[in-house]
Amino acid sequence: MSESDDCLFCKIIAGQIPSSKVYEDETTYAFNDINPKAKVHVLVVPKKHYANVAELAAGDPTELAHIVSIAQNIADKEFHGAYRLVFNTGLDAGQTVFHVHAHVMTGEKLDE
Ligand code: 5GP
Ligand code: ZN
């Protein structure tokens, strides 16, 4: 069994678990967070499984830049280009799903 066989976000990307899709292309999938922390709270994930943002940055920096540009596009549409981009990394930082995901929070003025 590979790492991704037991990964919630790999299953969402494969369509085995339903999600509310915001954007999709060949390499990347974006969907609404099930427990939103802002008016608009989207998770942007590479279709290829990487455990965290450091692994993605080392393995595919172009995809990391692509994820940032998708976040920008969502915020351009939802809130004049303003957004918060968060990659929780490690259990003690609150990472609960070990398939890298950008939290894009936007759509309203955010608390500091
Ligand atoms: P983390 O805590 O790992 O940074 O973020 C995981 C995020 O995934 C959380 O914000 C959580 O609400 C979201 N999440 C967990 N399970 C599901 C799910 O089944 N569907 C969706 N759309 N989001 C999920
Ligand atoms: Zn995965």
Automatic annotation (TrEMBL):
Which domain of life does this protein belong to? Bacteria
- GO MF term set: catalytic activity
Task: Report the residue ranges that make up the HIT domain in this protein.
Answer: 8-112
Pfam annotation, one family = DcpS_C
**Gene3D superfamilies in the record:** HIT-like
Q: Which residues form the active site?
A: H101
UniProt cross-references to CDD domains, sorted A to Z: PKCI_related
Q: Where is this motif: Histidine triad motif?
A: 99-103
Protein's recorded name: Histidine triad (HIT) family protein
* Signal peptide residues on this chain, from the entry's feature table: none
